[in-house]
Structures are given as C-alpha cells and as structure tokens.
Amino acid sequence: MDSPTAAEVTDVVKVYGRGDTAVRALNHVSVNFLAQRFTAIMGPSGSGKSTLMHCLAGLDAVDSGRVRIGRHDVTGLSDAALTRLRRNHVGFVFQSFNLLPTLTAEENILLGLRLAGRQPDRQWFDTVVDVLGLRARLGHKPGELSGGQQQRVACARALVGRPDVVFADEPTGNLDSRSGAEVLGFLRASVHEMGQTVVMVTHDPVAASYTDHGVLLADGRIAAHLQRPTADAVLSALANVGA
Ligand SMILES: Nc1ncnc2c1ncn2[C@@H]1O[C@H](COP(=O)(O)OP(=O)(O)OP(=O)(O)O)[C@@H](O)[C@H]1O
Asked: 216 alpha carbon to ligand 1 midpoint, in Å?
C-alpha cells in the first residue's frame, strides 16, 4: 500500500514584491510528501526551496493554490489556528539550532509540548534521547554543548511530539562533516526505524543522498524528482538545471 501524504502543496503560487521588482518564488508548484519518507528539497540558490518549506509549514502565506499538512488544510487558517497546527503537528530543525540558551537540553526538548499544554510520552522521550545519545547531556545548557550535540537536541525537540512532519532547513549547514553525518543518520533512522516523516531543504548532494526521494526546484518550478538519490545523481541533476 502507498504511504499516506504527510504534507502537500497544490498549484501554489508565491510572489514577493510588486510590479517591476516582483519575484515569482513559486510558480504553480504541486508536490506531495509521503508519510514515513525522508525527502530532500533541492535546487540552486534562489530556486524557491526555503519559500516552499515556509509555505508548507504555514510560516508564509501563498498567493494562490492549497497547502495541506496531514488532514489539515493550512490555507486560510487564522494566525492562532496556524500556531496551534504547528505546535501540535509540525517539528522544525533549523541550520542555527535555535535553542533557548537559558534552558537545559531537556527543557528545550520539552518546551514545545509545554507551550501546547501537552504531556510528554516518557517512553517516546526516552527512546528519542537514547537514540540521539543525549542522556548524559540533558542537564546541560546549549552553551555547554558542541554544535553537533545542540543540533541533536534540536532533532529531539522536533520529534518529541510525534509530529505529522519534521521540516529541516539545511540542518547540517553549521556542522563539521562528522557531526553532520550523525545528524543525517539520525534523521534517516527517525524515518526508517521510528516511523517519522522528514522533509529537508538542502543544497548539499551528500546530505540529499541520505534521503529516499529528492524534489529538485529550478526557477520556482519542480524540475525533477529523484528516487533514492546518490550524491552523483544530485550533482548531475543540479548541473542539468544550470546550478
Ligand atoms: N522576503 C522576500 N522578499 C523578496 N524576495 C524574496 C523574499 N524571500 C525570497 N525571495 C526571493 O524569492 C526567490 C526564492 O527564494 P528562496 O529563499 O525560496 O530560495 P532558496 O532556493 O531557498 O535559496 P537559497 O538556497 O539561496 O537559500 C529568490 O529570488 C529570492 O530572492
């Protein structure tokens, strides 16, 4: 049986600015992201990767078209409803970690659930913390952790609420290659062994090679789909779109 769709955009247009300076960042884009898959959004600089992720996550409004997360239609929701949807159904991992410096790792991991008034599932929390190797670091503040450890805390924070989808925006952009490989290996394991769904924006062919599926953007349109992309396949697909 095919996986259900975790997130989807249908015929989405997103224009920044007006008149002569208007930029059509997404030009009638339709794509669905299957549940329990690790998907990469790739493309040259300025091709619309971040815009697509922001529109998918309801962080940016579309000009036309529809956006869906799980069973929820994102288009047309009020800001309060969008905030609720994100808190309960979406996890985020950012390039710059975005942890609160005054909170411990454990408090950072659980903050989103606390804000949503949800009780953590302790067994799931323990699984995520142990798979990420964070047990001995839970009482540390971000300033006492390495970049790789901070990003693993951010991954735990994204997954602890069992979201419909985790959006990761260049999650290895600030990491050395060994820490980056650990984070990518964990994101892949969270999908293949823990049943989660991850959509990752990356310009790095090696990062994309950890995923099940790659969506290549060029000039605000879908230029190609790559199944089980290798780094070489990503490089040649990027070369084909002039990157
Ligand atoms: N807030 C904004 N105002 C005006 N133009 C914008 C804005 N955000 C993005 N753009 C433009 O929209 C287009 C797509 O940008 P986007 O950031 O989505 O690309 P990207 O593929 O993520 O690029 P990069 O890899 O460099 O981060 C670009 O031409 C960009 O300059």
From this structure: 15
